[in-house]
Amino acid sequence: MPTYHIQTYGCQMNYSDSERMETYLRALGYKKTDNQKKADLILFNTCSIRQKAEDRVFGQMKKIENLKKNNPKLMVAITGCMIRNSSSRYSPQRDKLFNKIRELDIALKTEDLSCLASLVREINPDIKIPKIKEENLKDYFKIKAAHNTFNSKTQAFLPISNGCDKFCTYCIVPYSRGREKSRKIEGILKEAEELTANGYKEITLIGQTVNSYGKSCYDKDNKNFEKLKNKDPFVYLLEEMDKLRKKGLERVRFSSPHPMDMSDELIDAMAKLKTQMPFLHLPVQSGDNNVLKIMNRPYTIEQYRKIIHKLRKKIPDISITTDIIVGFCGETDKEFQNTCGFFEEMQFEHAYIAQYSNRKGTTADRFMNDDVPQKIKKLRWEKLNNILENQSKKALKRFIGKTSHVLVEVQKGKICTGRNEHFKTVQFKISNKSKKRSEKYSGKIPGKIVPVLVTGSKEWILEGELRI
Ligand code: SF4
Fold it and tell me: Ligand 1 centroid vs 5 CA: distance in angstroms?
């Protein structure tokens, strides 16, 4: 039986894609190995949002060269954001990555997963892998992640769309994943129901701009959404997901929304639906209108501020986090100061702060100058990161002395870790006293939502004790 090893980089979407790739590889008769040395096929599921992420893949190639010396039949495939053209090393029209990576055998666009079998046969015509007949392995959206491929047994990622129509000038996603395509509502709900039946308590709906679900140019003529008339398709989906509460689903999150699609209807639904949690990660990218314009982010900080005010009015204790890029093309000191000021004003509780790096093929790459010196980018990152650390510490303090409801993910001896309603990591100890009490949970805490009295905080996490 041939063996595979997958290495995943990047966002939740990539991890979710890898779960589907594993299902497909298993259908081909491949068996998983955690040891690259024992693999017949090594698949890198890549991210090219930042240069650093790409460099990590290139950095692996020396090791791969050595592995190939010991196992000449080893196949190396790269999938994800770095690929534009699904092809093998023998295809007439090969992906450009073949010019850079000698060890590469297969380049695979994520949505072309069903081509993997034929690309493998192009490399090794003698390989014994079955022909995929099942209809539901041909359409990427119909490939279900086998439950035993999930990293978590308590919370699952569920893709609802793929690709992006927004074309931010710094981003490669609309070119690598293509235009946004939404998945059918029925298919999403069926998968969500199966996950719930298998004990998953939390589902995170994912898409590049998850809240534009059902509104892309491809969806306009889609009969699937016609019946909704004027209703926001994403809100409809959240309402339908909420009905799964009766079957045991407790929490529904979504990632990542775009500010332009944060409708009032969506904010109302977040406030009203029981499965919605008081947490939102809403990327702003810059706190300066001129930079937003150059980034092709089609909103102003005034509009963003309005959304946050509405959210805080309807959900007063909501935790809000964001993404910021510092040092984008032409960003002046004054513009960066505006970002710092806006960051403090919005009191973001956490953020992914990135130093801008040019991505080949983007609008910024073709028409703009990456002219902020690396040293300045680093200084700006440090300054904003210091503000973030202070705000994050302050945000954690508000939980101390209160009860958080924690969905327990891991238990190591007497220490349990999980996330609370606000998506904060909470670590707690099971004392002898609470162990006795926890018998209420038949001794098994992972996978349960338990009340925890928060007693303190350390760096980015909360600490507490089981309260039953
Ligand atoms: S919204 Fe912008 S940053 Fe996000 S995936 Fe689309 S183009 Fe990229």
Answer: 29
